[in-house]
Amino acid sequence: MSELPLDAYYDLTQIGEVAVSPSGDRVAFTATEYDQTEDEAVASLFVVPTDGSRAPHRLTSAAGAEAPAWGPEGDRLAFVAARDRDAERRVGWRDRDEDGEDDGEESADGDGDDDAPDEGDDDEPKPQVWLFDLALGGDARQVTERDEGVADFDWSPEGDRLVVESRDPTDEEAEYLDQVREEGGPIETTRLQHKVNGVGWTDDVTPYLFVVDLDDPDADPRRLDDAYGGGAFQDVTGMEPHWGETGRIAFTSCRLDRPDDTTIRDVYAVSPEGGDAERLTGGDLSHDVPTWRPGADELATVAGDPDDPPAPAEVYFVDGEGGGADADGDDPVSLTAGLDRTVARGGEPVWVDGAVYLPIADESHTRLVRVETDGTAERVFAAQGRDRALAGFDVAADGSTAVAVLSDPTAGTDLYAVDVADLDGDADGADSGAAPDSDALTRLTAVNESLITEFAMPEATRVEWDSDGWTLDGVVYHDPDVDPADGDHPLVVAIHGGPMSYDEPVFSFAHAALTSRGYLLFRPNYRGGTSRGRAFTAELTGAWGTAEVDDIAAGVASLADRRWVDPDRVFGHGFSYGGIAQGFLVTREPDLFAAAAPEHGIYDLRSAFGTDDTHTWFEAEYGLPWENPEAYDASTAILDAGEIETPLLVMAGGEDWRCPPSQSEQLYVAARKQGIDAELIVYPDEHHNVGDPDRAIHRLEKILGWYETHDPAVEDGD
Fold first, then answer.
1. I need a labelling partner for 468 at 20 to 30 A (CA). Which of 60, 311, 424, 524 fits?
2. Sign of CA dihedral 644, 650, 653, 654
3. CA 664 to chain CA mean position, Å
4. Buried b vs exposed e over 573-601: b needs ≥16 C-beta within 10 Å?
5. pLDDT value for 109
6. Cα distance between the two ends of the chain
7. Please, which residues bridge with residue 471 across strands?
């Protein structure tokens, strides 16, 4: 068994978004690579033919690319990137009068350029829309030049215009932004949602939709005055514009009386020529990704009920003629209520021949379903199999070809093409564990081939155990040279976040780093997660620190009963709710772990309320802390800190507003106060994520070192 060097992280490539061309002959995708010299992630845009006839071609030479979208004819490809300004927008003689004379006087020191940046005016470029003309060739040209950048965009059906989303500050708001950004001025806010993770302190600037004329690049974009955004997480969700074939633009917004006090979002439609926006939904659900049905004034959305946290996110059919509480049309209808399964995270509706395809979370498995407008739903895409995850999906506009991103623990995460006609085969074989039909798939990429060839990736085995009357499942990863049945292996219990999420076999560098060093890696699907229906998720709603503690401990015991693991060499691991769960486990099951490494967690619900960005979520699940303090305290691990015996490596992001670093400080101090071996690591400018590659590597180094330091077998000299 050879250890995977942690510096090999720089050789990792991670696939992002995919977009199939209208005719299905090509697919564009983004991929993130890592620059060791600059120590940064670099996202690039690639194109590859869907027949697998050649390797992917890198389109972008400059770093940065996201949200690729084909023009309707398939000869142009637009994307969003924060790049240096287009040369055509930088060169040339500016600020001339009509006679061609320079209208400024050169100063004595020769500095007469009014456009010269002030000292410190070195802001990073804002995200703008860029466009490749693949018929003409050449580099991408910059399409927009918004001071606040572009958050999202879509093509018009004719391909002559774009609709873009961009913040549009008033003069007063712009002055405030300058004071804060450039002068370090004070934060001033009256917003309830005063900060958002990954965004920082919020402000009052309103985002609008603008129409950009591609045939007249010098014309100013036209603002659609009634197409504006709003809501607590507007800075994260965006307005999600989609320009339908019948001519109108759909978008999401929250226009309730207290938009910062809810996560409700409605769907609106507006003419590209302007005028009033029409609300199409009823003001009671959180609607996302509105997607027009081709050739019809009807949409599909993904929506959840903010007042019912464990309820699955469902696909809704929306009458584009008007259906909200202020309209005479039909109310939106759920098409997937009968499934009792949530739409998978990031899942978006894709229309094909009058039906919707999208991924759902189903029995610890991300898989594809086809949903008819009468609510008939069928699980499809048997070729995927059960032992790899569906990480992305798109279909050509002509309905011919689909591309799936499949994540396989040993083979990597890559793009596969499949004829749409082959998607609808009987999926029962995939449920039963039968071998998938690989002949139906054409592999298009092998982005981590060199890494996988040089270093062995772990194998994955699904396991089951019983807990409190439930049969639960999880995934055990192990090095291919290791047989779990040999027994007495050290075990890392890697707990998923959420908690409304789930684990399934996937490709992961971190998994390989652990298994190549002899650990078994156990990812338990505890109650409170998703993929098994509302009742399963509701087991943990408003009761953190209960069912998941029992389920994880029972899962570890089941592996010990199989004689796969040494119960004295069990280590905790997990991010976000995976960190939160470790807080409960070390206080309520203090003998479970030899050492634990909770990352970016919450351990005191009362002090988290209002210092994080999720006050609406806490209220939906627990009520308000001053009205229901007992519920908050029952789910607060720090109140049981006197039970901690486990050495703790506590990690946090200095700018994590989802799970603030003060939470990790509390857990760390509580342990150290009692003489427990503990270490606190705070990455100063990190959000609720793992940041630059050096930090991803440092994180793994520290976790591995912590486990080794506190491994009884190492301490005993074994």
1. 311
2. positive
3. 23
4. bbbbbbbbbbbbbbbbbeebbbbbbbbbb
5. 38
6. 18
7. 466
The secondary structure of residue 331, as a DSSP letter, is: P
The pTM score is: 0.92
Distances (CA, A) of 78 to 358, 535, 571: 23, 43, 46
Q: Which of 513, 521, 457, 495 is nearest to 701 (CA)?
A: 513
Q: What is the dihedral of CA 373, 375, 379, 380, to 10 degrees?
A: -10
Q: Which amino acid is at 104?
A: G
Give the torsion sign (CA, 555, 559, 562, 568). negative
Cα 121 to Cα 114, 517, 584: the distances in Å are 13, 48, 47
Distant-in-sequence, close-in-space partners of 317: CB < 8 Å, separation ≥ 6: 298, 299, 300, 332, 333, 334, 335, 373
Residues in the chain: 718
How does strand 333-334 pair with strand 350-352? unpaired
Q: Where do the H-state alpha helices sit in 57-101? A: 87-90
CA nearest to 152, candidates 52, 44, 288, 280 = 288
SS3 69: strand
> Can you give the pLDDT at residue 305?
97
592, two tokens: 């479970």
Structure tokens at 374: 């009468």
Rounded to the nearest angstrom, the gap between the alpha carbon of residue 234 and the centroid of all alpha carbons in its chain is 15
Instruction: Provide CB contacts within 8 A for 12, sequence distance 6+.
Output: 33, 34, 448, 451, 509
The structure tokens 């690639």 sit at 46
Q: How would DSSP label each residue in 24-63?
A: SSEEEEEEEEEETTTTEEEEEEEEEETT--S--EE--SSS
Distances (CA, A) of 136 to 133, 428, 517: 6, 47, 51
Identity at 521, one-letter amino acid code:
L
Nearest in space to 659 (alpha carbons), one of 546, 586, 571, 578: 578
What CA–CA distance (Å, rounded) separates 28 from 56? 9
Within 172-255, strands assigned E span 195-196, 200-201, 207-213, 222-228, 242-243, 249-253
Residues of the chain below pLDDT 50: 87-122, 324-327, 429-430, 432-435
Distance, CA of 388 to CA of 506 (rounded, Å):
6
Single out the residue of 331, 366, 332 nearest to residue 346, CA to CA. 366
3-state SS class at 486: helix
